[in-house]
Every structure is written in structure tokens, then in C-alpha cells.
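Dear V.,

Thank you for sending over the compound details. I've combined the ligand you provided, pyridoxal-5'-phosphate, with the protein sequence from our construct and run the structure prediction for the complex. I'm sharing the raw inputs here so there's no ambiguity about protonation or stereochemistry in the SMILES, which I know was a concern on your side last time.
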Amino acid sequence: MDFITEELRKLRKEDLLRTLRTIESAAGKELTLSGRKYLSFSSTNYLGLANDPRLKEAAKKAIETYGWGTASSRLICGTTRLHRELEERLAQFHGSEACISFVTGYMANVGTIAALVGPADAVIVDRLDHASIIDGCRLSRARLLVYQHADAKSLENVLSGAHGYNRKLVVTDTVFSMDGDICPLPDIVTLAKHYDAMVMVDEAHAVGVLGEKGRGVVEYHGLEGQVDVVMGPMSKAFGGVGGYVVGSDELIAYLQNKCRSFIFTTAPPAAGCAASLEAINIIEKEPQRREKLWENVSYLKKGLAAKKLQMTNSASQIVAVIVGEADKAQALSRKLFKQGILIPAIRPPTVPKGTSRLRIMVTSEHEREDIDRLLEAL
Ligand SMILES: Cc1ncc(COP(=O)(O)O)c(C=O)c1O
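Below is the predicted structure of the protein with pyridoxal-5'-phosphate bound, written out as C-alpha cells.
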């Protein structure tokens, strides 16, 4: 096992070693670590729902009825009424025929891609797609073809040269998790139609946030019904845990039968479904959360621009300040931490070498004075 010692030594030397922080409070804009409060800009709790009393109450009630664990996989006897209700509600929220939910968003991506394409097929991805998409592609054993980031011309080059495959699937994040920019979805849909490819989008950082009703980039671009497979999160703006896919009745029946990350795992607790159902109600009833989020995003971006800090081309609530080398980003993150601000440095392999960054995630819970404090510290 010498390779482990050696690998850890290497990671430590390059300032790439990751360690766990222990949080002693609920997820919110302030987190307690070792008894000290930190102002956090590092969570995906975009609408402040992770510690909402209504979600907690819904989860508690569900535990009273269904207990904590499900003690079975979904297809055996782990599907409660709440699992069904949540899937119906998610389908309705997205204006789709049906929905299948998963224990995590990671499992939704990995399992769905591997069920849709195989060794005789091609899967076509953006260079900056999320790791869970890439892992799904690898698991599928389909030929992996990569196009330049958010570049429709490059996608067309790849599609036009992709001959001899049985099926073709284009998969993209809609909001890119490390840069905060948005994929050119209208072009992707047009090109996929032209070259007879299926389209799958990962709306992890868009659902609840983008689109008039918070239904994501598909809604934002008015493309409902034109994307074959839409993956969404319960783990970001919903403030909970889990992932899902919405699409046609047939797609969902197919995934229920073919998707290994759905079939061969224990069903998530019904309490999580109850909390997610409540989250959808709140997202629909309280658009002011989204409005506040966007006000905060715009205030932060103006402040960063005034300080001439190099940002990624963000069009969302994910705003990254590029630092460069991992050790510099890490040093900056440590300095902020000393001042009571929590923004972990994002380093390779999560982002390409030389682009280590501070990824700032604002939420609807932040106030202007919080953002001022961050700008001052930066
Ligand atoms: C774009 C994207 N897709 C999928 C996932 C996986 O979702 P989950 O955390 O629910 O597993 C994440 C983040 O974790 C993500 O950023």
C-alpha cells in the first residue's frame, strides 16, 4: 500500500489534498465550525430552504407515518405514496409526462446515461460537463466524444463527423457548476435534431433559480417538450437530497427497468420526499426568493467588477474569481477563513490546472452587508 502514502504526499506537496470540515450548525448563510461562526458563500442552498421550518415539519410528519428507513429497493417494496406523489409533482412542475427519482443527482446522471447508450453508441459531452455525467459516459462504454466548452460550432463539428453509431446522445450541464455560465441550449437542440441525436440536460444549478417559474434553463429558453431527458436536483435549490429525471412516460418506464442506479439500491427515506414536495410548493408560491437571489447576484458581480477581479463568464448565481495556481487559491481561501468567511478554493482535478479559483455561491439568504463584508475582505 506504499502507493497511498506516495499519492497523499504528492497531493500535500501540490496543495491539492482535500480534508473534511466539521460543521456544527444547520446549513445556512452562517455556519459554525469549532465553535466559531463563519459567513458562508459555499453552499448550493440557493433559496435558503435547507433549514426551512416547513420542510423540517413535513419530514418529521413523514417519519411518524413511514418511519426513517425504507428497508427495500424501489422495485421491491420501497416505494411509498410519498415517492409516487413527489414524482408526479416533479413531472407536473416541469410540464413533463413522468418522472423517476434517485437517491442522489450523481446516481441520476450515472444511471440514466448508462441506460440510454452502450458500446455501439456515441455520447457527446461539453468539455466542462460535471463529473457525474462523465462517469455515466464511462460506465456506458459508449464512444465518448467531447466538444469545446459551450461552443455550438464545435458541437456541430463533432456531430457531423459522428458516423457509424447506433444511437447518439448529447449531454450537457445547463448551468456549469464551476464557471456559472449557461450552455447554448437552443443551438444544441437544433443541432441534435438535425443530426438525429438525443439530448439530455443536467439542470442541477438551474432548477428553482432560472426561468420565470424556476423550472430551469429549458423553461428560460422556452424549450419545454423539446429536450428528451431532463435531469434535476433535490440537492441544490430544493435544500434536500436526491435527483430526478423527467421525460416521456416511455422514457421513465424504460429507466425504471434498465437503470441500475435506480434498481440496485435502497429507496431513499419517504421523509426526504415530503421535504422536497414542500420545497416545490415554496418555489412556486414564493418567487420573491428568486428575486432576492438575483438582486444579490447582480450586487456581488458589480462589486467584483469594481475591484477589477478576474471572473468567469457567469450568467448565474455561481460566480468564480480566477486565482490561477492551486497554492495561491488555497492561501486566499485560508486568509478569508481567518476573517470568518468560508469560501473553499476549487482546485484540480475539479477544474483545469492553472484555473484554481474561489467559487462564490450567493443565496437568497445573504444581505447586502454580507456581500459588502466579502468584497471588503477580498
Ligand atoms: C451539475 C451537477 N450535476 C450533478 C450533481 C450531483 O448531484 P448530487 O449532489 O445530488 O449527487 C452536481 C453536484 O453535486 C452538479 O453540480
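A first observation: Residues 287-306 form the longest helix (20 residues).

Warm regards,
I. M.
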